[in-house]
Amino acid sequence: MNGQNGGATKRARGCKASSVRRYAVAGTLALVGLWLCTGPVAAEDMRAALQKAKARYEAALAEARESQKRITEDRRLLEREVALLEGQVAALKADIDAGNARIEALARERAAFSERQSEDESALRELTGSMRVVARDLETTLAQSLLTALAPQRLDALKSMLDKDHFPGLDDAKIMSDLLFEEMAFSGEVALRKGSFIGRNGNETQGDILTIGKFTAAYRADAEVGFLNYSEENHRFFALSSLPPWSIGRNLKAYMQGDTDEVTLDISDGAALKQITHTNTLMDQIRSGGLLVWPILAIGVFAILIAVERVFFLKGVHDNTDGVMGRVNDLAMQGRWEECDAVVKQKKGRPVYDVLEAGLCARGEDRETLESILQEAILKELPRLERFLPMLNMMGAIAPLLGLLGTVTGMITTFHVITLYGTGDPRMLSGGISEALVTTMLGLSVAIPIMLTHTFLSRRVEHVVGDMEEKAVALTNIIYRQTVVAERRAVSCGVPN
Amino acid sequence: MDFVAQVYAYLQPGGIVMFPLVISSVCMWVLIIDRVLYYRQLGRDDIPLRQAVGMLAAKAAPAGATGLRAGVVTAFLAERTGDRDLDKKILDRCAMRARPSIRRALALIATLAAVAPLFGLLGTVTGMITTFDVIALFGTGNPKAMAGGISEALITTQSGLTAAIPGLFMSTYLMRRAGRLEGRLDETVAVLKRHL
């Protein structure tokens, strides 16, 4: 209870303090006002002043009214002005919007234009690019064309077009199309022109140059006819280092003279002509075949000698068998023995004569003895007839073996090359293999004729021996018949033998 | 003409070896056909054994018989003396004279048949040489150029074997045929000797 009261008292005290201060100020003011208004003189003045103040007040009021009016007027004006300006602002804003819209439209237009421009530019670049590509292609085509060798200046027109900074115009296009048409016409043309080329001896040579389309070129100079090789590097014709085979050369000559409608040409773009210069003759192959080629060739030569000797020998024997034995048999048939002996004696030492001699000498013997003597004589001649034939047989067997041996040694060399250089370059290896095979080839080509000759000669010997045996039996029969006839005659005449 | 061109087109890739190969096989077949016809003639136009003995008795050969026995008997009748021992020898001689013609050319046929594969091998070797030459020139990158040599190698081998296999067959067949004919000749001579 006390606390509450205390708090209220304090508050009341605070209010009291502020109202005391307010009273003090008002008192002071009142004192000043009193001091100002006090005096006896001041009463009249107060009225005048009041009047004055009233007038002033009135004036002030009027003035206030006036200014109030003026203010209203001004406000009105200003408001009008504001409205006007606001209208202007709206118009300007609209203007800005329209301007922005136009800017946007123009920007779009610009974008469209620049797109079109870039399109056009790329098209143009493409065009010039393709022109340049065509020009480059054309240059390659022309550089490979045989006609360029005849007219090298036509490449010059293309040189400027290949320059990167050069803008190709319609003139250039015309030049290119002209060149292409010229090339097209040339590729379908067969023509004989005068021209110069590098001859086989390396000198500049003048002659007739025959071009057959874009395939082949050939030359004729000083009765020499051959193919021309075209070099792309310096656009010149070079005569092939070796002349073509005889038949092809004759064909070319006849074609150039117009005697024939057919001509040999190379459609492989120079590869076939290159083969001409690389043709291996048999001599080259033999030289490259290594050491074993020589024994094989020696066997071949030896076999030829043997074959020739045997052929003539057997031919002589055969003729003798037919002729001499037949003649002797005829003489014997007539009983003219002395003449038989004389015939045989002429050429003693030759097979047929020896056999005959043996038979004639033994004509007094009985039949079996005579037969065996003749058989023996023939057997004795057999080695002479068959001489060299086993050797021929052996050589026929040995030649392919030697060839095989050569191949194997060649292969060994090839594998040495492999161990040295590896298998990276097939060219190096195949050269060795090709050389290795040469011996087998030679071995076979020597062996086959030897085999055939051997068969022929053996048959010939058999034939001769058969003939001889037959003639010998005939001789026996004749001798026997002579004795029988003599015996019979003796018996019939009654004369003892 | 067309056929010739075709044959040439077939043989031409085989190279130079094809020529001896073709020539030797043509020779072989000519000989084979000649032999076959000859043997057929010897066999077909022959007289039976009994008739041959009869001929001996009649002392005359029938006209038109060209067979093996007929030939021997005809030759014998022309030289016959009447003496028995001598006649036997004369018969032997006649048979001996007929004998070589039976075996003629058989060895040659056999050799030609044996040589044909060797020609094929030779062609293979030359073809391989060509192939390896091409490789030496162009490397292994050009199969078209290599194909020429390879086809040369294969065609010659094929042709060699084609010629050799029937040739060997025919050679064996003809040998057997000749053996039979010789047997018949021996038999004829033996029988005739008995009936002299």
From TrEMBL, chain A:
TM ranges: 291-308, 397-421, 433-452
GO biological processes: protein import
Coiled-coil segments: 43-109
Membrane topology of this protein: Multi-pass membrane protein
Keyword Transport: yes
Principal localisation: membrane
Residue intervals of the MotA/TolQ/ExbB proton channel domain: 354-469
Transmembrane found in the keyword field: yes
GO CC list: plasma membrane
Pfam families named in the record: DUF3450, MotA_ExbB
Protein keywords: Cell membrane, Coiled coil, Membrane, Protein transport, Transmembrane, Transmembrane helix, Transport
Compartments where located: Cell membrane; Membrane
InterPro entries to which the protein is assigned, alphabetical: ExbB/TolQ_transport, MotA/TolQ/ExbB-rel, MotA_ExbB_proton_chnl, UCP028069
Similarity-based family: Belongs to the exbB/tolQ family.
Name this polypeptide is given: DUF3450 family protein
Species this chain originates from: Desulfoglaeba alkanexedens ALDC
